[in-house]
C-alpha cells in the first residue's frame, strides 16, 4: 500500500511542476508588450541637416536644428544629426524623455556646446 501512495505522490509532484512551468511561461508571454519599431533617418532639407525619428513608421520627431541651443542653430554636418538622433532613439527605447541637455551634446562633440 505504501508503494502505491509514493508513486501517486511522485506523479502529482511531476504534474504540479509542469503546471507551474506552464503558468510561468504563459504569464511571461502575455506580459510582453509588442516592441515599438524606432528608426532614425538623417537627410538634408532646405540646406540644413535634419534627423527624423519614426515610431512604427509614423513621424515622431522632425529636428532641423540642434536642440537646447539658443537661436535654432543647424547641425554642422550629417554626423552631428546622426549622433543626436541616435541618442534620442536610445532614450525612446529606454522609455526616457526624448530630450537632451548641453552636457550630453558636449559629450557627443556637437559644435557650439563648449
From TrEMBL:
<dbReference type="InterPro" id="IPR032593">
    <property type="entry name" value="DUF4907"/>
</dbReference>
<protein>
    <recommendedName>
        <fullName>DUF4907 domain-containing protein</fullName>
    </recommendedName>
</protein>
<dbReference type="Pfam" id="PF16250">
    <property type="entry name" value="DUF4907"/>
</dbReference>
